[in-house]
# Entry
Amino acid sequence: MSTAAEPPASSAGDAALSHPLHREDVRALQRLDPGAWRTQLMARVRAGARPLTVYGRRDGDRVLLTAVLLGEGGFSLLRTSVHPAGGYHELTSEIPALHCFERELHEQLGVRVAGHPWLRPIRYQGKDQAAMNSYPFYRVEGKEVHEVNVGPIHAGVIEPGVFRFACFGEHVLHLEIHLGFQHRGVEERLLRKDPRALAPLVETIAGDTSAAHAWAYAAALEALTAPAGGAREASGGAQEASGGTQEASDGAAARARARAIALELERVAMHLAGLSGLAADVGFVPGASTYGRLRTTAINTTMNLCGSRFSRGAIRPFAQPQRGGLALAKLVQKNLTLLRTDLAIIHECFLSSRTVRHRLAGVGVVSADTARQLGLVGMAARASGVALDARSPGRGAFAAPPLDVCVEPAGDCLARARLRIAELSASLRWLELACAEGLAEPAAPEPARPLLPEQLAIAVVEGWRGEVIHCVETDEQGRVIHYKVQDPSLRNWMGLAMAVRGNEISDFPICNKSFDLSYCGNDL
Amino acid sequence: MSLLSLLRVRLSQGQQAIADVRTAVPAGFRGRPSLADAACPDDCHACIAACPTPVAAISKAPLAIDLGRCVFCAECATACPEAKITFGESPHMAATSRDGLTLTAGRPHGDAEARAQVHASQAFHKLFGRSLKLRQVSAGGCNACELELGAAANVNFDVSRFGIDWVASPRHADALVLSGTLTRTMRDAVRLCWDAMPEPRFVIAVGACAISGGLHEGSRGVDRGFLDDVAPALYVPGCPPHPLTFVNAILDFLGVP
# Structure
């Protein structure tokens, strides 16, 4: 797995892309036999490619598996078809980062994943409450060992999920995270409507990450309608999406800029929410109230741009719906300046406070090696020294002004807090420069074009938690036959479980808050 | 960290609380819609076609919006060829009955009339008018409603000035504040929480998901049986509702001026 910053998705052709985006002609995509699929997947990961996702869909009485990797040469896809009952032999023992994908394949599609060491349910999709109540918790045996159960309803105003601790005294031997309480059935629902009208639903996949999910959705859909003529051949017969040539036009550049502004405002707001919560959890009241009220400033800025404090309506495919103009740009600038000046004061107080350092330093450590092995992404990875960031520095909306990728090496709760502080500063710097050039006026949607047949679009967007991935595939008639959604939380929950091991159980709330993961994003 | 820098934080913070939450208007907010009072052509269904919810929140003849389903995307307003639908900034749109959430064309849509959809309860005024403890449960919420409900207690909205507080235990709670579409996997937990609450008690349904199922109405993961048994006493629409919608709904319901 790569340790350095993610290499750009592909070269020259798409310098205008802000995030990795790919379109694959599935007619040209070879269906490997399961053995070869397995071997090649392993070989590519060993060669340094990073698995972005592995997912499946029913295909008659078989299941079609797709693995998506991102490496030096850009995207690469591997596809195979298996009988669910026969399945294939697990890869998790070799590549732990695949654990959640293989568990999902087993749960969603009944694929036998032979020899999987941890075949726990991901979200109890399609199962009933009775099965939910018999979750097979891992038991630690021993005379003095006891279990603590927290949830599904927690003490605060937050989403539900179960945390089961196996403890020896105060010492946590094992934490098992049992989710699925938020499972609504989003993926199924995404196939029921006109694919161009899914934005409001997409915005609720994880409602605190609306902008990132909406951008990934819009990018995937736009790639699926891009004229194939502009696409360029890449290795392995894969075609890079010609979204690059699209974004290159002035209107598209303004659209990308507006989307990036929504995305970075969302990052600022949620980092402030997280720091406020963390400050409250360690009893640092000035931090809780100051970060909290500054979040209000950030989300009210978003509301000025799109009418919603949660970026609802900020991003639509083929359109630029956000408000713009000089007066609004001035107001946004004023708010950004206020954020920057007030944050400078409170950051200094927060980081120099003995309470904060005492409670956060050395607690909930995830080493860089563990982060890489588990395939942690986004903020959780970067706070453990793994420089993964899907935003392409120097490209698209992030080209000018450039956006810094922040990394913290320590991997503890303090590192995750420091990372959020660093990212706040980086995003605010970028926003101030981006908005100084004015805000684009709204642009009406382009006339609807049919989706290209038998294409698979993969869009990656760096949300505030990490990479949001949307994979959309069309059939011979250009209808969407599969919509795969992946929130970064799916991969990062295991990071929290590992962070808590060997810690005091009383430190769990701050570990949990420092990761700040989405329950509904996992449960879908 | 010096005392001086803490004072600087305090000074820079100043007075953050919204002085009068009853009259405050959130600038730029896509809030309560209003409908023009003119008949639509029979063959035009643009608004209904544009509505993203599984059961359209907008209907015709007469033109009406069900705020219990509306996710305030304003796609209908964009789609309407006659520009008859407009979304204003007002956060006042709660109701004490499910029918009270239906807005129709031709009806005046001022704040006073909108607020009249919340019928103050004399009994609850006496019991909870100066102290109301809330237990929030999310059952399929996307964390937007949850964050807005949490924000109601922050330094800006500061609901505790009215004696309204979030509590951790259902034993201490007077009302159950539900958000989310009510997932099948949360069915037992919601019931357990409700059963643990002492009488008198009531349910507040927050957001399109909790009120009607919202964007997930009819999905396989949804089980709304609990709300068939226990009807909410107060409905707070939005996706998510603005904290001002929530705070004003409660104050109107408790008869607090």
